[in-house]
Amino acid sequence: MFIIDFILHVDQHLAEFVTNYGLWIYGILFLIVFVETGLVVMPFLPGDSLLFAAGALAAIGKMDPFILGLILFIAAVSGDTSNYHIGKYLGRSLIQRYRLINIDYLHETEQYFVEHGGKTVIFARFIPIIRTFTPFVSGMGAMPFSRFILFSMFGTLCWITSFVSLGYFFGQIPSVKHNFTLVIFGIIGISFAPIIFQVIKKHLAKKKQASI
């Protein structure tokens, strides 16, 4: 399947795109990041690994790192903005019409984003899948857009700077370059670590309560 192959060999595919499309690579990267961030039905597209690979290519002069960072920033923030408004104007009606989740969960979501929405928007940027759903839920949960966009921009800046810089400074190291698929799995594993930790934590808490 192309999507899986693209994720596992994103460095090779990006190098081919640069060779075949030249400056259009910036438009391709914009589209991928915008879709992954802006469309709630596309959470499986590469994010962290894409930034890392793009940074590695920038290190050897295939792309300008500053233009790359700006394009990725605009794409991610635009995607968040789009996804937020989809959640705000369509999320509630879709849930009520198709009964996707219990309406009580929606009220809990609204309360959660009143109390913890800011840090959630920031940290979600670093977690695959979650970063796609968070803008949608933020809009659906009635988090003010002015507040959401500030945290989104800050989280996006940290996300892009960290992963593009990692790719720029370490992506061309021979051991990394020759084992890029393993690096991708490592990035994915680290990205999902917070979710795994929370699941284990909740499971142990439930188990402890059950034993009392």
Give the oligomer, counting copies of the same chain as homo and different chains as hetero: single chain
The major sheet is characterized as: none
Number of domains: 1
Give the termini distance in whole angstroms. 49 Å
Overall body shape:
globular
Average residue-wise pLDDT: 82
Tell me the number of strands: 0
Give the helix proportion (percent range): over 70%
Provide the succession of SSEs: HHHHHHHHHH
Which structural class fits the helix and strand makeup? Answer: mainly alpha
Which range does the strand content fall in? Answer: under 5%
Taking Cα atoms only, what radius of gyration do you get, to the nearest Å? 19 Å
Brief digest:
The protein has helices at 2-8, 10-21, 24-38, 48-59, 65-98, 103-124, 130-140, 145-170, 174-177, 180-211. The chain has 212 residues and is mainly alpha-helical.
Describe the structure.
33% of the residues are buried. It is built from ten helices and no strands. It is 83% helix and 0% strand. Helix 2 (10-21) packs across helix 4 and helix 5 crosses helix 7. The protein has helices at 2-8, 10-21, 24-38, 48-59, 65-98, 103-124, 130-140, 145-170, 174-177, 180-211. It has one domain (2-211).
